[in-house]
Amino acid sequence: MATLTSARDFASDFEAIRSQMDDIFRSLGVSSDIRAYSRGFPSLNIGSTPDAVELVAFVPGIDAASLQVTIDKGLLTIAGERHNAIPRDVAGLNVYAQERRHGTFRRVVELPQDADPDAVDASYVDGCLRITVRKRESSKPRLIPVQ
Q1: Is 0.90 topped by the overall pTM?
Q2: How far apart are CA 122 and CA 40, in angstroms?
Q3: For residue 36, what pLDDT is reported?
Q4: Contact 53, 112 (CB under 8 A)
Q5: For 43-66, b where at least 16 C-beta lie within 10 A, e where not — what string?
Q6: How many angstroms separate the CA atoms of 117 and 94, rounded?
Q7: 68-72 sheet: strands from edge to edge
């Protein structure tokens, strides 16, 4: 016979496990905020206007020349590398916590079908990479005269 568990029991069991995991992560000097790791890097804001798809990637501390933006088969890809900000040549430096991730990164966004891969602009200002993908003229609403 199966044992029924109430939602309250499940939630309290899950919270106890999370608390134990937090203690383990804290003892290692590592952030236990799983949500921060699951979002990916860079963080993105994506929106749309009648004329374009607008995307902003937050990539502070990264040289614009090292960013790669590509579009292939309706997928926009942002790739690059964030270098470790902790100097390695300091004698006696003992790092006990490091919350900023470093290394290569890659984010892929599926563009809507009306996005024109041949009409893309990208600019980088103050750690924000702004990408504008204009929409195809054929996909915009138009008035059709009735004869």
Answers
A1: no
A2: 21
A3: 47
A4: yes
A5: ebeeeeeeebbebbbebeebeeee
A6: 48
A7: 68-72, 75-82, 103-110
